[in-house]
Amino acid sequence: MTHKVFVAGAAGAIGAALVPLLIAAGYTVFGSTRRAERAKQLEDAGVTPVVVDVFDAVALRAALLRIEPHSVIHQLTDLPFGLDPARMAQAVTANARIRDEGTRNLVAAAISAGSERMIAQSIAWAYRPAATPYDENCPLDIDAQGPRGTSVRGVAALERHVLETAPLTGTVLRYGQIYGPGTGADAPAGTSPLHVEAAAYAALLALQRGKAGVYNIAQDGAEVTSEKAKRELDWSADMRLETRV
To answer: With 202 labelled, which of 5, 19, 91, 213 sits at a CA distance of 20 to 30 A?
Structure first.
């Protein structure tokens, strides 16, 4: 039987890098976007497009029931291109809503459709301040105030939905600050930088290896350690679409 994968956010920066990896690995890929004008972009990439809003729980459930994907990969965000500072205040709230309500809807739809696995994008800069490098056992900074608190609590909700909702097997990838094609950032920046194509490879490897749990995904020398991902997923920060390092 063909292994069908539903990529939520397939037209985004990480989704666009992930799709060719999935197709090359032999998966049948269905990709969601809430913008109908992006459907042709997905078709051209070899994806069956699904135009649906993650906040429309009824339509989302119907779409997944029709597809019956074995696995769901959650790469949805609601952030301005290049993290435009003028738009970030509003984006923080919108993104937290996707992480909580949107993830809850996606998990429920996946379970209704009989999906077995979910892999979801989280962030690696949500840890409570302490000695570094942070590993996956370090607590999240859920008591933070202001926009950071909104963001971290959204992350905590996403991770809870993905990791604790039976019968799905859940994997959370805590990505560092993304840069590279389609991200609006050409060079590494932040405390835990990560190339977008290396981020996409982490999702593919998590899918192929069937690993559950939480993984930090960032370059060497980052504020977080990615040793668990290197050890269990055979992941490397040097992975790119052209070569598999």
So the answer is: 91
